Amino acid sequence: AKKHGGNRYVFFSQELANQNERVRLIANNVVHALANQEYFMVYQPVYDLSTKKITSYEALLRWESPIIGQVSPVEFIPLLEESDLIIPVGRWIFRQVITQIKLWEEEGHEDFHVAINISVKHMMHPDFLYDVKSIIHEMKISPQRLIFEITETVAVQNTDLAIQILSELNILGVKTALDDFGTGYSSLSVLKLLPIQQVKVDRSFIVEMEQDGEKSLVILQGVLDIAKNLGMSTVMEGVETPEQLELLRELGAQKIQGYLISRPVVAELAIELRKQTWLH
Ligand code: C2E
Ligand code: CA
Ligand code: CA
Ligand code: CA
């Protein structure tokens, strides 16, 4: 038994060592990912339940490391945010997405929006608004195409500055969305505080809805109603099954995003999906 226990200990510590090694590899290599052109963007459609059309896309960052392979943004975005790397990477993402929007406009596509995830640190950077304005101006795209997704942590550090920047974005014509709604602590008060036009309801609501039933359903209904009554549009994240979609439709959900419609895909595929006739 002693030997067995010893082996298990060895097994777990080996697993831990592998995990530490991965974390170390990611930290060491993410520093060069931008310069080495290892990033690319994918786009996940957002589907409107009433018009049965894809109305927008969320742009999501991907890192394909030649040494580590595909690394999830969940693993490396926090590292970029800890260092100041999120600023140049954020700028690159912005330029990348604006270039894509320009291309789609030139191809004649109309009535679409693209959402970009904005790190709080990037948004609070003194150059942020200037950067945004100059790239939009340089590329001559319509600012109305853009949605900036931010999380509620934006309101924690410097609420006044956050309100000011978000308002300026709105004046430019850029829409603002509150991402991961319901995962933090102050979600409801943030809705009241910040100038935002859209609420993205976190996937955890759907998971809980199916696990604990009635109570979670009532809460989700409440969230959708509150957002609607505040004049904000809603996007339900992480919809994976037709059953979930039907339930959400009954609750009055407007827009959905999730694997049921499509996974995040490269731009060419994403825009193709708009031609498809949707039955949901
Ligand atoms: P997020 O902003 O909440 O993005 C939604 C995440 O949910 C994406 O993961 C997406 O692939 C995933 N997802 C979409 N539909 C489904 C579904 O039906 N089921 C499940 N289980 N998952 C679904 P991803 O791309 O791995 O991104 C993770 C997080 O990394 C994002 O969460 C966001 O916080 C961050 N991130 C990704 N791209 C960027 C970026 O360009 N800039 C910044 N600042 N953060 C980013
Ligand atoms: Ca997001
Ligand atoms: Ca989200
Ligand atoms: Ca998230």
From TrEMBL:
Superkingdom classification of source: Bacteria
Taking every annotated instance into account, which residue ranges of this chain make up the domain EAL? 23-278
**Official protein name in the record:** Bifunctional diguanylate cyclase/phosphodiesterase
**To which species is this protein native?**
Paenisporosarcina macmurdoensis
Shown stretch of the complete protein: 441 to 720 of 720
